[in-house]
Amino acid sequence: MRVLVISDIHANLVALETVLAHAAGAYEAVWCLGDLVGYGPSPNECVARVRALPQLICLVGNHDKAVLGEIDINVFNGDARAAISWSQSVATRASLEYLQALPAQRVCGDYTLVHGSPRQPVWEYILDRFVAHDNFPFLDTPYCLVGHTHMPVIYHLAGPNGDVREEPPDYAGPRRLAGQRLIINPGSVGQPRDNNPAAAYALLDTDTDTWEYQRVAYDIFATQSRMRAARLPERLAARLGYGW
């Protein structure tokens, strides 16, 4: 099965639509690793667009839970808090009910899907190989797909001594997964943080176990204009332009 893997849309409808158009015809199912809302200007539109995608598996993220009131917004920084509060003020009942029903974790054959980490599916950030190392014992599958950090990366449990290698994304073509023990992040659709402002996603073929990173430029100015019209924090709008 060919799967479109997306994560961290963060209410950026322009980026989401661009990704879906770029990937058109290349997938049969969609796995979304959470954080449909937060930061951006189009929470209801993004929820509606995602929930209509084919053969969808969608997880809940920490910003989704914050908008639901299930995580104290005081644990977020000031800009994130402001965006969450604004999202709460505009969220429709349909959006909230959909987010409320999302699971924190799913297992699909050889793939464990979480937003944060196998150890803490909603909240923990896997930002380096040391945190990745501590999470491999919590995996019952060869592969784990995570989001949350907004940075595309592969962590590879390299041998019996427990060494973990960090692989940057390779956009040259598909990577064979080959039964290795891997934690894989597709990057962020709506707010990349790897100094590349282009929307990030991946294509996975579960029949051949191949993973392919993708980037696509989108109309950042359109999203920034919507954010400014909604009076969301300027820093959140500005950071889209430099991918951090």
Protein model, in words:
- With 244 residues, the chain is an alpha/beta fold.
- It has a single domain, classed as Purple Acid Phosphatase, chain A, domain 2 (4-Layer Sandwich), CATH 3.60.21.10.
- It is built from 8 helices and 12 strands.
- The strands form 2 sheets. Strands 3-2-1-11-12-9 form a 6-stranded mixed beta sheet, covered by helices on one side. A 6-stranded mixed beta sheet has the order 4-5-6-10-7-8, with helices on one face.
- Helix 2 links the parallel strand 2 (29-32) and strand 3 (56-58).
- Helix 2 (43-51) crosses helix 5.
- The model has no long low-confidence stretch (mean pLDDT 97).
Please give a quick description of this structure.
The protein has 244 residues and is α/β, with parallel strands linked by helices. The chain contains 8 helices and 12 strands.
- Bin the strand percentage: 15-25%
- Residue-averaged pLDDT: 97
Number of helices: 8
The overall strand count is 12
Question: How is the CATH topology named?
Answer: Purple Acid Phosphatase, chain A, domain 2
Order of SSEs, N→C? Answer: EHEHEHHHEEHEEEEEEEHH
Principal-axis shape: globular
Q: What's the topology here?
A:
Layout: E1 2-6, H1 13-22, E2 29-32, H2 43-51, E3 56-58, H3 62-67, H4 78-90, H5 93-100, E4 105-108, E5 111-114, H6 129-135, E6 143-145, E7 153-157, E8 164-167, E9 175-176, E10 181-185, E11 199-205, E12 210-216, H7 220-229, H8 234-239
Parallel strand pairs: 1-2, 2-3, 5-6, 6-10
Antiparallel strand pairs: 1-11, 4-5, 7-8, 7-10, 9-12, 11-12
Helix pairs in contact: 2-5
